[in-house]
What we know:
Two copies of one chain form a homodimer.
Chain A: E1 10-15, E2 24-28, E3 44-49, E4 52-61, E5 70-74, H1 75-81, E6 88-93, H2 100-107, H3 114-125, H4 131-143, H5 147-159, E7 172-176, H6 186-196, E8 200-204, H7 214-218, H8 228-238, E9 240-244, H9 245-248, H10 252-264, H11 269-282, E10 287-294, H12 303-320, E11 323-330, E12 338-339, H13 341-352, H14 360-374, H15 385-394, H16 397-409, E13 421-426, E14 431-436, H17 438-447, E15 457-460, E16 467-468, E17 473-479, H18 482-494, E18 498-501
Parallel strand pairs in A: 1-5, 2-4, 7-10, 8-9, 10-11
Antiparallel strand pairs in A: 1-6, 2-5, 3-4, 3-6, 12-15, 13-17, 14-16, 14-18, 15-17
Helix pairs in contact in A: 2-4, 3-5, 3-10, 4-10, 5-11, 6-14, 6-15, 6-16, 8-16, 11-12, 14-15, 17-18
Amino acid sequence: xxxxxxxxxxxxxxxxxxxxxxxxxxxxxxxxxxxxxxxxxxxxxxxxxxxxxxxxxxxxxxxxxxxxxxxxxxxxxxxxxxxxxxxxxxxxxxxxxxxxxxxxxxxxxxxxxxxxxxxxxxxxxxxxxxxxxxxxxxxxxxxxxxxxxxxxxxxxxxxxxxxxxxxxxxxxxxxxxxxxxxxxxxxxxxxxxxxxxxxxxxxxxxxxxxxxxxxxxxxxxxxxxxxxxxxxxxxxxxxxxxxxxxxxxxxxxxxxxxxxxxxxxxxxxxxxxxxxxxxxxxxxxxxxxxxxxxxxxxxxxxxxxxxxxxxxxxxxxxxxxxxxxxxxxxxxxxxxxxxxxxxxxxxxxxxxxxxxxxxxxxxxxxxxxxxxxxxxxxxxxxxxxxxxxxxxxxxxxxxxxxxxxxxxxxxxxxxxxxxxxxxxxxxxxxxxxxxxxxxxxxxxxxxxxxxxxxxxxxxxxxxxxxxxxxxxxxxxxxxxxxxxxxxxxxxxxxxxxxxxxxxxxxx
Amino acid sequence: xxxxxxxxxxxxxxxxxxxxxxxxxxxxxxxxxxxxxxxxxxxxxxxxxxxxxxxxxxxxxxxxxxxxxxxxxxxxxxxxxxxxxxxxxxxxxxxxxxxxxxxxxxxxxxxxxxxxxxxxxxxxxxxxxxxxxxxxxxxxxxxxxxxxxxxxxxxxxxxxxxxxxxxxxxxxxxxxxxxxxxxxxxxxxxxxxxxxxxxxxxxxxxxxxxxxxxxxxxxxxxxxxxxxxxxxxxxxxxxxxxxxxxxxxxxxxxxxxxxxxxxxxxxxxxxxxxxxxxxxxxxxxxxxxxxxxxxxxxxxxxxxxxxxxxxxxxxxxxxxxxxxxxxxxxxxxxxxxxxxxxxxxxxxxxxxxxxxxxxxxxxxxxxxxxxxxxxxxxxxxxxxxxxxxxxxxxxxxxxxxxxxxxxxxxxxxxxxxxxxxxxxxxxxxxxxxxxxxxxxxxxxxxxxxxxxxxxxxxxxxxxxxxxxxxxxxxxxxxxxxxxxxxxxxxxxxxxxxxxxxxxxxxx
Lengths: 507, 507
């Protein structure tokens, strides 16, 4: 082999540009380091310095954004490459990641080996894949995936990030597949279970397309962006925690895959199970309760779909030695009254405080889920979980435990006021609430500003089966700014998300 | 419906940043027009001004790239939106194109209607799709496409750009699916056919992953970036032309789809046929000859694959009333000696000039293809096409016609020198050339700098069946700059792309 002379290096310059997940760099068309023409057809480049490698999308410029001997790194690339301004990097046209051969094989219908899936996930987690390459992997897998491939995917995703270890025989966790407005049961279940003394180190996500994730709601009460060590301290002190999973870096490839799945609405059972189980495996859970809400506007429309998903969760759990229990719950309408971080946090604290106005459905569902988890404790006799959960809630032990967790995680750092702009959405006729569209209420709460505005959202007054008089408020919209408020109000007038049947109708 | 108050508009600022195909805009995090936080999860925005709409990917910045009341448009977005600097535009989070619902349907296995396919292609051609959305459409279609969907796709792609009309009963065209180094037959066939008097308005592509397209090679001899009107003048004057299709804007959606197909190596028969036939339909061709090279390192490995592709071309041709003839040719090795624009142009001019050193294979193949096309002339008796083609070539009429076309298109505007750095790649042993790897030679010629450096590439000295002595040159590498030259030379040492068998071996 002839030795190839090195190309001259470029100096790092930081460019204040938030390019989201993607690594983007800017190179001058007059660049001294390489003839930029070679980039026609090569929009991807490879940066190397101090044995670090970064793949990035290259943009060219003629003017002063960067000098001819510089390479501009947009914020995400700058932080990931972590080389100081002015340091020298070599830049070459990037060859695509080798694991793309396996993606092409998958598209052509081939079954991938564990090593191939491992290489794909490793490259995804290292930001080596472009959006279109991620889409190709997801779509190739969406049309056909063997159970062996699913297991390899879960393993690879769990291995790609932090892996938590706990010195307990039993580490319990719960997870809901989402889609139901309100439904903030984790924030009641965790303090009950932790008050009993079982370990429940709960990590949650932020909302992506919904008006609130558990992490967004908990953030109203306490800090949630704890690192691994801080999280471990909280769990040691309180048996449980309620932190944001993103900061703990569990299954980072999952967050990247989701960012492409969502806009494309790729939503296969296998990918949902891989996403959830990889995080639980990485979190060190031994016993896992999964909540599958079923309803016409829930993610699962019927019991058959729920059963199929349940089998898949159990299959993966069995393989990795996680005891998985799956419960099907009523997903026809919101759980609790609040939709949006502050309103949901109010519901949670009302239930924990045994407030007489606390939403009964949220209390009952939380007790039922907590009962399942408590019965993982071998000391507890079968069937006594519910009574124990109720004791811990009614006695104030759960509230005390929640206060302890909040104190351990630290004070919140956000505006927790409710939105000052409010409007009630009235019933269109006398009658009975026959149905509530979960998707619609989520959408309206998001339009009103949730979860970015913590105190924006919707407070529900009427549930299925409730009689209503014409003009009586079905729910109240909360917002901070006119544009969002007006959009949400206009949206509720176009479609309020409620079906009101004639008086005396059975829902 | 409540009227929604308009958000304040932003002032257009031009950002000198070449973002390739994608529309990219830059917005300040302190923007007055909208709370930029709403963009979390909304990286796509919609710009509106004077009834124009542009979808773009939004990047956020904190510092002076744009002011709070400005929106920066990177070059492609600036040119496509075509609003002057300082003009006011409204910006809102973009809802995805409606046609994406059909893409999701396709992914789930649904057969799409003509209207749905039309809407997808229209949105693609208007740059409304992100890369990942294009990938989703291509992958959804790659796994299953009905013949009805294929026809709708060809129609929609042809309709999305320029549609040429000619006042002749017979408008002939030829097309090769590519993959064979050299093989610049169009530049010989067009002058022969045009000299005969048949109309052959040939548009060609530039190389995307190969070392030269016909447009790159013709550019060594004449201008190729003619607009529609200039192209028509050339064709009127000369019966034919050899221009770059990209400037004429035939089937612009095709160029966009290809830019995603290539990196993902999506290469289905249907997409190849849709790509080629949409361009021919838009070009107004009535009679089309298609060249399918078959060989171990060609795009088609065997006769069965070629037959399948032939049937699909004929099916689409029949439907749109284009007489399609498909010929299978020898695709085992390069055609002609040159690989790279200048070297290929030398081969072409040597054949047209009846130079005794002209490559015989290029001459023979061109005559054969021209013969097929000439026989579309009802005046010509069946079987006499070959003799007529030979007459036109041997008499110098074809050369004269080529000179006329070159003059009509205008003088070239590029460096046509051969690369001054050269190295011969020697035969590793005494013997006979048994095989040549077309992919490898293309790759080496491209590494040497072709097609960016017109005079870079490879000149082949030995073909299959030729005896060679150890150390005798198989081919010569030409390059302009040390880095490319060294890389190509190192590449040829690792794998020269030639199989040399023992003396006397039969290839």
